[in-house]
Design a protein that fits this description.
With 295 residues, the chain is an alpha/beta fold. The chain is built from 14 helices and 5 strands. A 5-stranded mixed β-sheet has the order 1-5-3-4-2.
């Protein structure tokens, strides 16, 4: 049922699907397009990257830490086994290590789900979470707000990739705090038409200005309502222009990193750290549509 040398000749384990405990699958986003690409790659080349597991609750049982896209794609292809490597770590240490290895590609909502899992399942308090994530307590609180304030249905739309975590953080969380149940109908319209973060911000501002009886008509087709209000939809930047802008931004950030003031007082340091957190969140919004997973 399992072996120290996989059938592909790689060091590791060949595990059958029923041996895999996928309890942490809800901590990760699902990308249908990524999964389709993985199926094509797995079909032609086979599995090139192992999933990561830790020891499970019984003999020959393993809890999956990383590789959920690969597991689903392999199951759809009819493959009976999955190539895995086992980390000899506790669940907490494995989840944190995995997070560290993929921190450049993780989204805000995934950070929030992981924080909540560590707090609720393993009892880590705010100070311990801040230490483990090397972040400020306010950063931890803002991430947790994504799941403490947003309804579960909205989280599911985020998990499915129909609403970006950046959009939820910037617009839906404040709306949920202010309007409560009203966020569900707005999020439903956003998920249905897959509006951009900019469009969601415009939609929220528009809804604040109109009377309640006009809300259903706007939410029935928010993109059309926004176009009508603006006269025409601004064209998206061309790919070449976007790449030039992001490369210029990277160069500017590198320049700033070489000229960090060494004499900031405590208030200045706090303001700088807050601004850096906000800049990171804004960059996360650019990164999310480019995410993917190796096969």
């Amino acid at each position: 049922m399992l072996a120290r040398m996989s059938r592909t000749g790689h060091q590791g384990l060949d595990l059958e699907h029923h041996q895999l405990d996928r309890r942490y699958e809800h901590l990760r986003l699902r990308h249908a397009a990524v999964e389709e690409r993985l199926m094509g790659s797995l079909s032609s080349r086979g599995q090139q990257v192992p999933i990561v597991v830790v020891a499970g609750d019984g003999p020959h049982r393993y809890r999956v830490i990383d590789g959920f896209h690969r597991i689903r794609a392999l199951a759809r292809l009819g493959e009976d086994t999955v190539w895995a490597v086992e980390w000899r770590l506790s669940d907490v240490e494995a989840l944190l290590l995995d997070r560290g290895l993929r921190s450049a590609s993780e989204t805000m909502i995934e950070q929030a789900w992981l924080l909540a899992e560590l707090a609720e399942r393993f009892g880590l308090d705010g100070e311990e979470l801040a230490r483990r994530f090397d972040r400020s307590p306010s950063w931890i609180s803002r991430r947790l707000a994504l799941i403490q304030v947003l309804p579960e249905q909205v989280q599911e739309w985020i998990r499915e990739g129909r609403i970006s975590g950046h959009t939820a953080m910037r617009h839906l969380v404040p709306l949920a705090r202010a309007k409560g149940e009203g966020v569900l109908e707005v999020a439903s319209a956003v998920a249905r038409q897959k509006l951009s973060c900019r469009q969601v911000g415009q939609l929220v501002r528009l809804l604040r200005k109109v009377s309640r009886e006009h809300r259903p008509r706007i939410l029935a087709n928010p993109e059309l309502a926004l176009q009508a209000r603006q006269g025409s939809r601004a064209p998206a930047p061309r790919e070449r222009d976007w790449l030039v802008e992001i490369q210029s931004l990277a160069e500017r950030i590198r320049w700033l990193s070489r000229h960090v003031p060494g004499s900031l007082d405590q208030d200045g340091r706090s303001r700088a750290l807050k601004a850096l957190d906000e800049a990171r969140e804004a960059l996360d919004g650019c990164r999310e549509p480019l995410g993917g997973e190796l096969c």
